[in-house]
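Summary for the steering committee. The consortium agreed at its last meeting that each partner would contribute one worked example illustrating the joint modelling workflow. Our contribution is presented below. We chose a case with several input lines so that the handling of multiple components could be demonstrated. No manual editing was applied between input and output; the record is shown as generated.
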Amino acid sequence: MNTKFMDNNYLAKWLNAEITDEVLKSYVGEADFKIYYKIKKDLERFESPKFDTEAQFKRLKSKIQLANAHKQTARVLKLIPTWAYSAAASVALLLAAYLFFFADTTLSTNFGEQTAFNLLDGSYVKLNSKSTLSYNKRNWTNDRVINLNGEAYFEVEHGKTFTVTTKIGNVRVLGTHFNVKTGANYLNVTCFEGKVEVLINNKKIILTPGQTYQFAENTEFNWTVELANPTWINGLNTYQNTPLFVILNDLESQFKIKIDASKIDKNALLNASFENNDLNMALKTIFVPLNFDYQLKNNKVILAKK
Amino acid sequence: MTNSVCKPQVYESLYNKHAKDLRNYLYYKFGNLESAEDIVQESFIKLWQKCADVVLEKAKSFLYTVATNMFLNEKSHDKVVLKFQQIPQNDTNIESPEFLMLEKEYMVKLQKTLAQLPDGQREVFLLNRIDKKTYAEIAELLNISVKAVEKRMHNALKQLREKIGAI
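What follows is the complete predicted structure of the assembly.
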């Protein structure tokens, strides 16, 4: 190699046609030159991703118009006389007072969403996807009552009775950790710490840590689990003796899909689990072991027995 | 004010001139195509909002600076995987299945090696090789010297050659 007379950055100069093939050959030798030459040639086959300038500009224009529209409404507001503001403020204040004293506070999650928050007494609640929870702030210190539809995990601070009401039955505690899952004709309560009372059909069932009570399609089940808290709060939904319709409903809530299971017995009790961050994986882990055929198309899943 | 950026025609011509290049630049640098396109939009919205303050000559560097900052804040960083044409362009007539397979394997290797180049080298190298920007243009764009551009070009090609090995 003729290093003595080599240009600095000779490869850059060669790419830029500042030095000839012959010169590069004299620097690096015939064999290496061939490889450099091939790479240079093959690089021409690569291309940047397509860019539709016209369509993108249209998108941009509509965004700008939207931003302008917001500006204009802001300007219009300024034309309103100042007294109107005080009037509006009074109305808002009255409304706020009304909401605070009389209306329920509602929290809900959308498809695939989970949310966690603290209640007025410091109790912790984690809400699973497609669930709704409401309570009344005014009465809170006297009467801790929560309405729940869907699934939530509670870590309740000690205090007055804490009740979770559902369509199927009520769950009453003093201060414990527990999970409630409910839907139409389904209730599942697991106690993780302390003592939990389930009130259903004029009956009282007492759960101690590790015990699960389930009411599904008018049938009761009891079993024990060995967990410190429900697995769904860490992204894994697990099921024991659970009717298929409950699992399907969870899949729908988690991934915003529709499942057609008309060809299948939806009351069959199953053990299953799925991770809630990957739809394809979830479908596979649930339906393959059950020997079901499934087809996913446009957020719709069709289930059939093999 | 004949050439104010606030004039719709001027603004649109700026878009037509720079949007694609800006998108490619962001893509080569950070690897995330979707974010790159969103940020192009955001940068142009910023330009429109500030059109009275930005003179036409500064519009390009305004766009690039705003876009780069936005991207740095987002911190998302993926691999740059460029597509390539399946048919080899070279003049050999050997097209046996084995040859085509080896050829494909080699192209995928080249593609991966491009993705693995250090960020600084990759953006310069792709801006020159794919977008056909001259060294001087790249130097101006990145605010570095032409010498620095040459060095990155040189090292990038050297690395490609080393990683590709014998063909």
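The longest strand of chain A covers residues 144-155. Confidence is low (pLDDT under 50) at residues 73-78 of chain A.
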